Structures are given as structure tokens and as C-alpha cells.
Amino acid sequence: MTRLNRRETSLHKMYQHHGLLRFQNMYSQATLTKWNRVLDPVFKRLSSQARSYVKPDELVKLGIFKEIMCKRLLNVISILDPCPTLFHCHCFEIGDTCYENLLDCNGLDGWHREPSDPSIRSVRGCRPYSIYIYLTDVAQTDFGSFEIVPGYEEGPLKSNMKSCNITGNKGTCFLWNRDLYHRPNANRSSKKQRILKLSIQTNGWANASIQLKEFKNALTGLGGDDPALAYLLGSHFGNNQAIKTMPYTRTGDLPRIKPLDCSEKTKVPTKAATMLRKIKYKLDKALGI
Length: 289
What we know:
By secondary structure, this protein is of the alpha+beta class.
């Protein structure tokens, strides 16, 4: 396992402190335009769904997966965990003119944490994380922006906590600790929102997703010309092959980190408001709304 140099150590410490890294120069606009062009007909077939998904095997088939996993991103991933395995790898699209948070099933305006085994840590101490890449512009909070409370991995959600509301043009890319409180805001804009999502944890721990057909097909479709990407897709999951770490040598090329803007504040609903939300959620679900 290659030791970290000064710049890599700085990135690692920044992630451990904030639980959030926002990058500035990961993908070109030409690359993003190409991805959207090849994804357009796929999402058109799924247009009747409020939230539709393009899974990893199709991302490999379309040629998008290899381009997502560029050297800069692989360098970051290798710094945080030399034994990384995917458990999410998809592109999803959110419907437009939506005035309710689709994930607000707990009555907290969509705020939640992802459940996971607290012992799952990389050899460098990093917990499972996700990466988002906006494929459409998210100019305002109510255009479906992602919001997160940095540096708060334990404890209950409280009002007036500093949160980071991530807006930006297509290509906005960030990596976040799944232990942090976060939420996707409702997309009230007149355009659908499209996001690429990757989630990563250290290899060797329980991972039901990597054993799904969509990941196995992605691994087969990838072929044998890129061992590092094959490792991410599960080539060394659950076996005793000789290579225990991802077969990848960092190039030293790292993305620029964008400073965090934590000027937003959380607002926790009252118990009465939470109860009403839960009742409304159950009624809407029963009515198929």
C-alpha cells in the first residue's frame, strides 16, 4: 500500500474533518454534454417514472463508466481507501415541478442519515461515502439541490446547525460521508434533474449490491483491460485472490477543492408538524399519490 504524500494527506485530513469534499475541475463540459446525449434516449424510455435509474451495466455499455472513473477521481478514491468497492453506481433522474420531497418519510423535511455497520472503515479510517455528479444545472435550492451538515457524524439533528447547500452548474462534483445528515431538496424547477451517483466502502465487508446481476453484468461488460475498474466492480469481492488492494498507482493529479459554504441553517420541525407529516405521508402512500 503506497504511503500518502503531503498533498494527499491534506486531502485525507480535510475529508475526515468535514466529511465533504467539493471538487472544481473534475470533468469537461464536452464530456458532460456527451454523457447527456447518450443518456437522453435511455431516460426517455423511463420518462413515466418520478425517479428513474440507469444501472451500472448500462453505464459500462454506454462507455460512461470508464470516463466517470478518470485519473483524478481514482486518485481521490485510492487516497481514502486503497481497497474500495462500489455498492451504488447509477445515474438517476428526478421529475420536474415537484413540490414535496420524495424522500421525506421520516417527517424531518427529508433530513436523514444512511444506516451502516459502524465498524466498516478503510485502513485509513474512512467511512463509506458517496459521490454525486450533477448532469444538469442546479441553480437554486429548490431546483433539487443536495444539502448536508458537515462534520457532524454523531448526535441528533438540531435546528440552526450550519449546513452546506450544494448548487452549481452541470459538472458540479462532490464526495460526502454517508454518516452525515443530508437531504435532497425538492425539484420545483421546470426541468428534470439528472445525477450520477457512486457509493464506495472498503472491500471485504458485507455488500449485497455488488452481488446483483447489474454489477456482475457490468464486470463482464468491462472486460479485462482495466484491473482497477474491475476491482471497483467486485472482481476481488469475497475471494482469496492474491491482489488485496486495488491494482492502481496514483498519478498525483488531484482535483481542486472548492471551499465549503455553510451559510444555510437547519430547521427541525416540531413534534406536531412531524406527526402531521407522517400522517400525510401514509395517506399519500395509501392513495398512490
